[in-house]
């Protein structure tokens, strides 16, 4: 099948890899413009662009498909049978949605209509969902509201972070999109009218741990914000990243450090306590709590700052 692929991050590159391996002709890859990143702020290509170039596929990087009429015309001339979209990050105007024979097909990392929007993986973990999955959806103008072509569920493990769960969903998405393309045209199924939730984009301000919340909720925050933006807390004026944490029994004033010895840093929460298992100082490496305490002594009885609300 002659396809166009639109995507940007690693999640999308795994889908593209599966499509290439299945023998489809990818006539064009759309991905977001190169972004400055790293300490040197050098321009870096997206994972999808890197894979496309390595596979000899033409790449187009418009900053907006709504305003770039030359990009729209180029897409039109390719005569694609379908466009596959996965975490592209740009809005597709109706004119583009209508161009391919079978329209535009989205790989979405949730069981729609739950968690429509930009951050379905993180929001599922934050909410304490036990199950998520991948939906293959026929795209329309509404936000992730189109009819479903295929769906498959995936359990969320107790230790899953946004990174590990995204990786597993990406593999599932790659398999499902190949199945969907092989079966086109598939009978569309309208999404359920009830149970719609929205996965708003993650705001960095959300990453500040609020010790007034229950420990179980804060443990989910740590998992959901790993790797981005990284849960954080301030101790004695130093902002620390918390990469792994466990909810345990404990009691004290929210933010009070109940223990900081051997391999344990335990902080009282609104309900229970949070054991900080892996931390990072600004400019430092991620360290297990035992190693962290060797270079950064913390006294029991000191406090983690409460975020301003």
Explain this structure.
- The protein is an alpha/beta fold.
- The chain contains eight helices and 17 strands.
- The strands form four sheets. The protein has a seven-stranded mixed sheet.
- It is elongated.
- The mean pLDDT is 95.
Offer a few descriptive terms.
six-stranded antiparallel sheet, 8 helices, 309 residues, elongated, alpha/beta, 2 domains
Helix content: 25-40%
- Compute the number of helices: 8
Rg, Cα atoms, Å = 22 Å
**DSSP summary, beta strand count:** 17
Task: List segments where confidence is low: pLDDT < 50 over at least 5 consecutive residues.
Answer: none
| Strand order in space, largest sheet | 5-2-1-6-7-9-10
From the coordinates shown, what is the CATH architecture of the largest domain? Answer: 3-Layer(aba) Sandwich
Broad structural category: alpha/beta
Q: Give the number of domains.
A: 2
What distance separates the N and C termini?
Answer: 53 Å
Question: Which word captures the global form?
Answer: elongated
Would you identify the CATH H-level superfamily of the largest domain? Formyl transferase, N-terminal domain
- Any idea of the CATH topology of the largest domain? Rossmann fold
What is the CATH class name of the largest domain? Alpha Beta
Main sheet?
A: 7 strands, mixed
């Amino acid at each position: 099948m002659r396809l166009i692929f639109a995507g940007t991050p690693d999640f999308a590159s795994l889908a593209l890899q599966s499509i290439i391996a299945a023998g489809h002709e990818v006539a064009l890859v759309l991905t977001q413009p190169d972004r400055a990143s790293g300490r040197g702020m050098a321009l870096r290509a997206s994972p999808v662009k890197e894979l496309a170039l390595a596979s000899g596929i033409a790449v187009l990087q418009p900053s907006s498909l709504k305003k770039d009429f030359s990009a729209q015309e180029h897409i039109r001339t390719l005569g694609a049978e379908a466009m596959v979209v996965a975490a592209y990050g740009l809005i597709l105007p109706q004119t583009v949605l209508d161009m391919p024979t079978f329209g535009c097909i989205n790989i979405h990392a949730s069981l729609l209509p739950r968690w429509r929007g930009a951050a379905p993986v993180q929001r599922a973990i934050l909410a304490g969902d036990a199950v998520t999955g991948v939906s293959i959806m026929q795209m329309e103008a509404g936000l992730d509201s189109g009819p479903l072509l295929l769906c498959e569920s995936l359990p969320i493990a107790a230790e899953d972070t946004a990174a590990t769960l995204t990786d597993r969903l990406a593999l599932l998405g790659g398999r499902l999109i190949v199945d969907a393309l092989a079966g086109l045209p598939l009978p569309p199924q309208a999404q359920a009218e009830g149970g719609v939730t929205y996965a708003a984009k993650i705001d960095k301000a959300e990453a500040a741990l609020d010790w007034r919340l229950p420990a179980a909720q804060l443990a989910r925050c740590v998992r959901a914000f790993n790797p981005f933006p990284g849960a954080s807390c301030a101790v004695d004026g130093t902002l620390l990243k918390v990469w792994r944490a466990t909810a345990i029994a404990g009691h004290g004033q929210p933010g009070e450090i109940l223990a900081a010895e051997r391999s344990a840093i335990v902080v009282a929460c609104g309900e229970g306590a949070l054991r900080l298992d892996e931390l990072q100082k600004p400019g430092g490496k991620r360290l297990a709590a035992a190693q962290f305490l060797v270079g950064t002594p913390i006294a029991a009885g000191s406090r983690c700052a409460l975020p301003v609300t």
